[in-house]
Every structure is written in C-alpha cells, then in structure tokens.
Amino acid sequence: MPDFAVLHERETVPDYDVSTPLDTDYYGVFADVPQTDRAFWDRARSFATESLDELTTAWDKAEYPLHLARRLGELDLLTDGVVGPGLSPMSPLAAGLVNMEISRGDGSMGTVVAVQGGLALRSIALFGSPEQQERWLVPLARAEKLGAFALTEPDHGSDSVGLETTAQRDGDEWVLNGEKKWIGNGSVGDVTVVWARDDDGNVRGFLVEQDTPGYHGETITGKGSLRAIHQARITLTDVRIPLDAVLPGTHTFKDASTVLFATRLGVAWSALGHATAVFEAALNYSTQRIQFGKPLAGFQLVQERLTMMLSRLTSMQLHCLRLAELDGTGTLRPIQASLAKYHNTRAAREIASMARDMLGGNGILLENHVIQHLADIESLHTYEGTESVQSLLIGRDLTGISAFR
C-alpha cells in the first residue's frame, strides 16, 4: 500500500526552497541602520515571513485577507512615517524599510501600507482639522478602521488634475456626485478621502464614510496583479455629507499632489522589496537546481545574469537610502522621488523578468513566488504616476520646458 501521507507531503512541499531571505546587500547599504529603525524592519520581516503562504493562497483566489491588513496595524507598521497626534514616530528610513520588507513578501500587503498610511492617513494628518485627526488618525494607524484615497477616475488617470467629481454646497451640507476607479479599500473600508471640485472649481478633499447613502463601491474583478487587495470602482450619487467633512487644509489640486509626492518614494522602496525577492529566488534556485550534472550556478551565463541583476538591485538600494537621508533632513524634492520611482520600477521589472526566465517552467509556479512578484510589479510601475508621466516631470525639471501641453 502506498504511504498516502508521504504522497500528500510530496504534493504540497515545493521542490525548491527559493523564499529564504538572503539579506542581499553587496555594498553594506543598510549595515548601519539604527536600532529604532531596525525594530520596525524586524517586525515587518516577521510579518512577511509568517504570512507568506496564506498571502500566496489569497492572491491565487483573489481574496483580500482583511485580518492580515489589521495585523499590520497591530504591529504599528501602517503609518508610513506620517506625523500626527497619537502616531508613533517612524523615520523616513524606517518607513522605507517597512515598505521594502512587506513588498518583499507580498505586493498586495505592500499596497495596503501605501493606501492606508501613505495616502488616507497622510491626507488627514496633513490637511485635516484637529477634530478629524482625533477621530481618524489612530484608528487608521491601528487598522481598526480602513481608509481609502479616491482621486483617479474612469476617464482621468495620468491627467487626474482634470477630475470631474463635484461637491456642491447645499445649505449645511455638501452634495457629491461622480465616479472613481482603482480605489484600494474603496469597497471594504470605513472612510474614503474623496477629491472633488467645489462650486468655485477648486479641488478639495472630503471625508466620506462608506456607509453614507449614495456611496457605492464595487470591487473590481478579473485582475492579474495585486490580487490579494480589493480595489473599487466608486459611484457617488447625491452623497450628502456635513460641511465639516471637508479637509480644511485642502484648496487646490496641489494639495492632492503633495500627498502623492510624499508616497512616491514609498513606491521606490516597494519596488526594491519585489526586486530583492525575485533576485534571491533566482540565486537560491541556481544553487539547488541541477542540470547537465551540475548546479545552474556553475554555468557562466547564469553567473553573468546574477551579476547583472545584482548591479541593478544595488543601484536601487542606493537610490532609496540617499533619498531617505534627504527626506530625513527635509530637503527631499518631489522630483527626486519621481526619479527614484522611475528608476526602481524599471529595474524591478528587468530583474523579475530575468528571474522568471532563470527558473524556467518553475518560474510560473506560485509556490516559487516569482511570477506573482512579476505581475504585481506591473501595477507598481503604473500607480503613483506612470513611467511616461515621471519622465515628463523629470524632463521639465531638467530643461525648464513642459512637454505636457
């Protein structure tokens, strides 16, 4: 009789262990991370490692494991370095390392950090009234409440400055109408920061609780990327909110841009996390996979590819560390964050493509995670400003000439 327990084990245990972190840091870029920052990093590492299998299953089934999003809050990993009443201090370096480490494990959870802390929490911390901050900051940081940031519309992505959602004054209320798309947590959360034009045509932020009549968030299905977080298409139909639901510090589209600029560096760190995961998967695999009588790592072509991948990864690390230093001194320019995002998402795509190829057929198995990272990087490459838009921003800064119009 066959040993069915052994057969089952063979079916469920991956043929190769490619997920063990190797802490690749060829230049010792992160060798001197302060202990306070390392404590955040260590907690993020533990979360990413312990939840990896569950998140892979959730990604496969396109399910959003909300309990893991809330676990990030319990671990105090959701603030993205935002400063505000009741929030734990987190340096720009610590915030970056958290983004990197969570994304090394899973891009969907990395996006939770970006949405919950980088966008929703930051909007209220920067522009909210003391009353709004008291009500929302700590619950959002702890993931007791889930937040969303609704700027992008079905017809306005890269040109989000042209948003058409309106907020009209009617007595002691605002009345919101319009549509939003690709809104993380927009169908499963508690409060959404909705960006809309007021009666004077000014772009302002409004806090809309998701159970408000007229607010409808429909989860977008059929995604091939970031499958373990729900993003929504939101319809606002005569949504009535009180006058004090507006974020008083918001007056123009530049305020929304301020939030986006602040989170752009986080995207560069997330790309570094994805790239680290796939590079280390390729390196692990090359030492375990035997072909033609020896490990893949013994072939010249494989060593050349690993070197190429390492060179790009090291460059990504240097971009992130330098900009974290600038952010810490308050001298980071938004356009510098654009360059880091431009460089790192491009490099992550290249590394992921090479890693997928190096794993051969095993590269498309979710159990080895490379194909999942490759797919998730595609979203990262697009959101918070596409490569094309970033290049135009950088080009304008270099030449003094705008190519947008």
Structural class: alpha+beta
Q: Note the overall shape.
A: globular
Through-space gap between termini: 74 Å
| H-E order | HHHHHHHEEEEEEEHEEHHHH
Beta fraction of the residues?
Answer: 5-15%
Report mean pLDDT, rounded to a whole number: 94
Rg for CA atoms: 22 Å
Helix content: 40-55%
| Residue runs with pLDDT of under 50 for 5 or more positions | 4-11
How many β-strand stretches? 9
Tell me the strand order in the biggest sheet. 2-3-7-6
Number of helices: 12
Major sheet characteristics? 4 strands, antiparallel
Q: Could you characterize what this model shows?
A:
The protein has 405 residues and is α+β, with helices and mostly antiparallel strands. It contains 12 helices and 9 strands. The model is unreliable at 4-11 (pLDDT under 50).
Layout of SSEs?
Layout: H1 4-12, H2 35-50, H3 52-61, H4 66-74, H5 92-105, H6 107-127, H7 130-141, E1 147-150, E2 166-170, E3 173-184, E4 191-197, E5 203-209, E6 215-219, E7 231-242, H8 253-288, E8 290-291, E9 294-295, H9 300-329, H10 334-358, H11 370-382, H12 387-399
Parallel strand pairs: 1-4
Antiparallel strand pairs: 2-3, 3-7, 4-5, 6-7, 8-9
Helix pairs in contact: 2-5, 5-6, 5-8, 6-7, 6-8, 8-9, 8-10, 8-11, 9-10, 10-11, 10-12
Short description:
The protein contains twelve helices and nine strands. It is of the alpha+beta class and 405 residues long. The chain has a four-stranded antiparallel β-sheet with strand order 2-3-7-6, with helices on one face. Strands 1-4-5 form a three-stranded mixed β-sheet. Strands 8-9 form a two-stranded antiparallel sheet.
